[in-house]
Design brief:
Blueprint: H1 3-31, H2 33-36, H3 46-57, H4 61-79, H5 88-100, H6 106-115, E1 133-134, H7 138-145, H8 162-168, H9 178-184, H10 191-199, H11 209-220, H12 229-236, H13 254-262, E2 283-286, E3 291-293, H14 294-300, E4 303-308, H15 313-317, H16 319-329, E5 334-339, H17 352-356, H18 367-381, E6 387-389, H19 395-399, E7 406-410, E8 416-419, H20 429-443
Helix pairs in contact: 1-3, 1-4, 4-6, 5-13, 6-13, 8-20, 16-20
């Protein structure tokens, strides 16, 4: 990367922080009784930019303020509604967490959400705060390279090689647009992903032709030869059954979630390093007992960190996508899986889908047990990705907020260039690939392709 491109990327990181701080200022205007009395004009233009600039200089403060504002809002809601009942063990866990977790933290927002009986949806608890971050956000790339201001990027405007342009052009229309970007960021737990997972009979992240044909036959039957659009819509995407009784093995109780939060099975209490920050260094062992150090890998080429575990269904579901990324980009990037504690052990929040896939195991208590499960996971998915196993107290998983699953891209200085949102909802290899391609576009020579 030349000096100019490095400056552009650093400016985009600052721009990302500025966007966050503007959102904080706007939320402050909406939430504060005093500022609500001011005309909207008084909170636009120079005033908001002044707040934004101050937050940029403080870096992570912008994100912290956003978390604080949302956590306070959740706390206000909680005071107006009854808390759900917890069993004795979960109530004790909740009391310990209330003492330990900072009031403005992502983990406290999750605690408050569980206390109010909310679930694990993409807008609940910490998921609404821990959204994806990228030094290559689409609006920033458009501002950098859209020379004529038409709202998309042509091949001439694109800074990189033809093959990277073609990969980013998801709809194949010859330009890079918001539509291409939007395709990359669909939630990993969205309706299309959930539907396709049903076809993956062995749940290893790859759908074979035989599995697809079997799924089609089971879904559509054999008697009918043609379907209308609405008939298919009702088969593939029916409305939710509001009166259905959920299986206790599939959907957790508030007590199960509270215990999972304390054990950090559903996620780390820490937020993990943000875009623009330097990621902590670590040394962990491979399954062959060889030691790998993150900083050594980063000095050789940029590093993709993949956090996951065997009992996390969305992690398994994305295994095929991750293998494809490794096949395409292993010469340009190091890939490293960090195996962390189980998200859905049989002695915790167990999942019916794991039982169907014959993945039923308790939370490992010893390092050798965790290593054995990691090896079984790697064999089950047929993975070629290099893998290291976190220690039993999860120092790396906690620092990177890697439980149950998460993705990072780090440069040679361990600076974070991409950070996915918290898994499972925002564990998106396609969004990671977008960052990989833009990084290559800015660091490799532009070819003379059409």
């Amino acid at each position: 990367m030349n000096q100019r491109q490095s400056e552009l990327r650093d400016n985009r990181v600052v721009g990302w922080l500025e966007t966050k701080s503007i959102a904080v200022a706007t939320r402050a205007h909406q939430a504060c009784p005093a500022t609500r009395q001011l005309p909207p004009q008084r909170w636009s233009g120079r005033a908001i930019r002044g707040v934004a600039a101050g937050c940029v200089w403080l870096g992570i403060l912008s994100t912290s303020l956003m978390i604080a504002a949302t956590a306070n809002h959740l706390a206000a809601q909680e005071s107006q509604s009854d808390r759900v009942e917890l069993d004795e063990a979960a109530q004790a866990a909740a009391e310990r967490l209330e003492q330990a977790l900072p009031p403005d933290s992502e983990a406290r927002a999750m605690l408050d959400a569980i206390r109010q009986g909310r679930g694990m949806g993409p807008t609940d608890g910490w998921f609404r705060l821990a959204t994806p971050q990228s030094a290559y956000a689409w609006d920033q790339m458009l501002a950098t390279y859209d020379d004529n201001g038409d709202g998309w990027l042509t091949r001439d405007e694109f800074p990189g090689a033809q093959r990277w342009f073609q990969r980013l052009d998801r709809n194949g229309d010859g330009v890079l647009s918001e539509e291409d970007h939007r395709w990359n960021v669909e939630s990993a737990s969205g309706p299309v992903a959930r539907l396709l997972r049903q076809a993956d009979e062995d749940d290893n992240g790859l759908i074979t032709r035989a599995e697809l044909e079997q799924f089609s036959q089971a879904l559509l039957g054999t008697e009918q030869n043609a379907w209308s659009i609405d008939e298919l819509r009702q088969i593939l995407a029916p409305p939710p059954r509001v009166t259905a009784t959920a299986s206790p093995m599939e959907w957790p109780t508030a007590s199960q979630l509270m215990l999972g939060l304390e054990r950090q099975e559903i996620g780390s209490h820490l937020p993990g390093p943000n875009v623009g920050e330097i990621a902590p260094d670590f040394t962990l062992k491979t399954l062959a007992a060889d030691s790998l150090t993150l900083s050594d890998l980063c000095q050789q080429k940029p590093v993709v960190l993949i956090f996951g575990n065997f009992t996390c269904g969305p992690f398994r579901a994305q295994a095929g996508n991750l293998e494809r990324l490794f096949d395409r980009y292993q010469n340009q990037f190091h890939f490293l899986v960090v195996y962390v504690r189980e998200a859905h052990p049989s002695d915790g929040w167990a999942m019916r889908s794991n039982e169907s896939a014959e993945i039923v195991l308790p939370q490992p208590k010893k390092y050798d047990e965790r290593s054995a499960v990691a090896q079984r996971c790697q064999q089950f998915m047929g993975s070629k990705l290099p893998l290291v196993v976190d220690e039993m107290d999860d120092p790396v998983g906690r620092q990177f907020s890697g439980m149950p699953s998460r993705l990072y891209l780090l440069d040679g200085d361990r600076q974070v260039l991409f950070k996915s949102g918290r898994g499972p909802h925002f564990f998106s290899p396609t969004e990671l690939e977008e960052a990989l391609l833009w990084h290559l576009a800015e660091t490799e020579p532009k070819d003379e392709g059409p």
